[in-house]
Amino acid sequence: MLRNIILIGSGNLATQLGNRLVKKGLNIRQVFSRTLANAEELAEQLNAYATDDFEEIQVDADLYIVAVTDAALLATIEQMPKVKGIVVHTAGSLGVDLLIRFNKYGIFYPFQTFSKEREVDFEEVPILIEANKDEVSKELEHFARKISGTVIACDSNQRQQIHLAAVFACNFSNHMYAIADRILKKNNVSFDVMKPLIKETAFKTEFLSPVKAQTGPAIRGDRNVIDKHLAMLDNDDELAVLYSKLSRRIAAFNLKGDKKVD
To answer: What string of pLDDT tens digits covers the 262 residues of the chain?
Structure first.
């Protein structure tokens, strides 16, 4: 049973995950961060020991969760000591073989966007797992089910494709919100007016495929509205190009025969 845990990292995911594990009665022994103040801040929340020294990482824990940025992952893994427990990383876009220097290793990828300031309901967060051995996979699945109602075993290619899809669905859509916010602010309108629309758009995916739920001038082929919008963007060539490309892409989906709703 994986009960004694070392957190490598102190960012958004490490903070949310660490607090969730403690609430479920698991023991976070230690928090490592390259910045000692960050390690101490999270360790205080989790009643754990803080360190910024790789040589001080305890080697006899059951599970080591490496929750650092993708850019820092390889260097972090290379500097970690050889440990007895299972080592997992939480990166969606990187393979499991980065951990090959350890005897037992795998992936523990909570599929959600995280912020330190907003608590996430882990029961609703899918956790994607992968491991180098069947017995490790079983241990990780049992562990993951302590904090989430959805645990999915998938290989590195599947997980990376999921991560790619997530960039479109989450990161790019959020940037569209930022563009909308800027347009509204320039015209002294609060972004609050968008929130019911955003909620309904997301809610419809519970019942319809995104293609079938598509609305707007592009899917209707409403050239008059599209041209009017482009004229409104005549002082921002980059945004006008983006609007045109997205409109053409939406129309192309419809031409492939996918059913739309108005």
So the answer is: 788 999 999 999 999 999 999 999 999 999 999 999 999 999 999 999 999 999 999 999 999 999 999 999 999 999 999 999 999 999 988 889 999 999 999 999 999 888 777 778 888 899 999 999 999 999 999 999 999 999 999 998 998 899 899 999 999 999 999 999 999 999 999 999 999 999 999 999 989 989 888 999 999 899 999 999 999 999 999 999 999 999 999 998 866 554 443 3
What's the burial of 15, exposed, middle or buried (CB within 10 Å: 0-12/13-18/19+)? buried
Fold of 4-154: Rossmann fold (3.40.50)
Domain boundaries, the chain: 4-154, 159-255
Pairing of strands 27-32, 49-51: parallel
Residues 6+ apart with CB under 8 A from 71: none
Q: Cα angle vertex 162, ends 242, 259, to 5°?
A: 60
Cβ distance 3 to 80 under 8 Å? Answer: no
Report d(CA 122, CA 42) in Å as an integer: 18
CA nearest 106: which of 59, 54, 58, 142?
A: 142
Q: Does domain 159-255 have CATH number 1.10.1040.20?
A: yes
H or E segment to which residue 226 belongs:
helix 223-232
